Amino acid sequence: MGDRRKNAHLRRYRQIAEVLVRHGLGFIVGIVGLERFLPFPRGLLGHPTPPGGPSPPARLRMALEELGTTFIKLGQILSTRADLLPPEYQAELARLQDQAPPVPTETIRDILTEELGRPIEEVFASFDPVPLAAASIGQVHAATLRDGTEVVVKVRRPGVAEQVQEDLEILQNLAATASRHWEPAEEYDVVGLAQEFAQTLEAELDYLREGRNAERFAANFAGDKVLHVPRVYWEATTSRVLTLERIRGIKINDVLALREAQVDRALLAERAARIILQMVFEDGFFHADPHPGNFFIEPGGRIGLVDYGMVGTVDERTQQQLVDILLAVTSEDVDRIVDVLFALGVARRRATRSTLRRDLEHLFARYYGRSFEEIEIGPLLDDTLTLIRRHHLHLPPSLALLMKTVVMNEGLGRQLDPSFALTTVLIPYAQRLILRQYSPALWAKRLGRASLDAARLGVELPEQLRRIIGEVERGGLEVGMRPEGFDPLVSRLERLGNRIILGIIAAAFVNGLAVLIAVYRPPGWDQWAGAVFGMGFLFAAVLGIYLAWSILRSGRP
Questions:
Q1: What number of CA atoms fall less than 13 Å from residue 424's CA on the CB side?
Q2: What is the pLDDT of residues 514-537, one digit of tens each?
Q3: Which residues share a beta bridge with 88?
Q4: What is the crossing angle of helices 190-205 and 207-220, to 10°?
Q5: Residue of 289, 307, 324, 359 marked catalytic
Q6: Contact, 285 vs 217, CB < 8 A?
Q7: 289 in active site
């Protein structure tokens, strides 16, 4: 079993390497250490990129599509990380199509029978064998419960969980290799990003979690007549099968159908924005994939929202950071904006504060003196994220997901109503968030926590000090230091030391050879002296040339 799994891993490594090289992405193969899985004739130089062919972002998208489910999901998530990728890569990866040929009906029926523990005829009055949609993780079928309720049944494809787990393990291994051999990979913590991606995708594979997400949204919007969250039918739901109330309506981006139905599109844009902003600023739990295909407009104007596999959370710390950003922007305090960005971003190396401050001054100079209603959120966030990338900061995943959701929300509103301004809807929520963050109740809560921490510290501090003093007296206290910042200096010193030693060896060899020739003259020496001297001189010359070459090479940028 272990050998079979190892062989499957090796085949998958080889397949990934070959696909990347075939699409002209051999540099990635070198970065992640996959070149050893390619025979030399078909290696990194075997597939040159044809002139006039697809752009590098397009080639990356095509490679991810060919590699299947895990890599398609990776590309889709990376398309939301504006703090990591330039806009051209984001736009291309956002085009990734998560489609797959449908699973045969008999296989779907077998899965349902196995998961639900009884024949599907006992659960559903009718079940449409033709899927409504077929994606790489699962496919959706229309059905009717025994009581006549219309539902949709989401079924996970057979074998997809095992393939995803194998790919996730490979991705984490590749990320670890890249972080050791490529400075930007270590700088942006690709190992941590791979782990976060694994958690996100594993959650999407679990339909029980998606059902709980839907119920949480339903509870948050209980009594709200604007949003319709589908009901979860738990008696027909497992980790591989999800049964939800079916929502019918007009897709929110079908402008012609909305016009024929006489729907007020300006009001609809405002309602959709208020739904997302309530999730973010009031509930702290938001739908992280608000693309038009997930919104349905029901008769009467109620909005039905589907697909709760990808969600985000806004904890108290993130809310405080959002307040700090708003206050810094409104007060035109560039130094405070810099402080907030450093607090938000994770820098793997020291960023230059003065340069970041100068760039921010240029950026926000275009917005000073303008009212919030005149500012478009999308371009402002894009410009800010460009600065974040330039200064080697990257955002926590929850905040990156939040920014992507806000931008998508604004884009959706402008599709419905070209005059829509998200800021007009955002201001009341931002003001409430600021008031809540600085309310006496919240400060009392924080003060209570701080008082408990201070009391606990006062009680524990004497005992901890006694232990430290005891360790010092026994000689058991050791101070460790991890000189990660000195690694380039240490490497440079090692190279310098090696060159010095090499130079000493070359000089000692030449000197020793000269002394030997002058002093040691055995019988027949004259016959071999020239050859020995020539070989010795050649060896010393090679050492000297190599030493000079390494010194000159080290001076290159």
A1: 12
A2: 666 666 566 665 666 667 667 777
A3: none
A4: 80
A5: 289
A6: yes
A7: yes
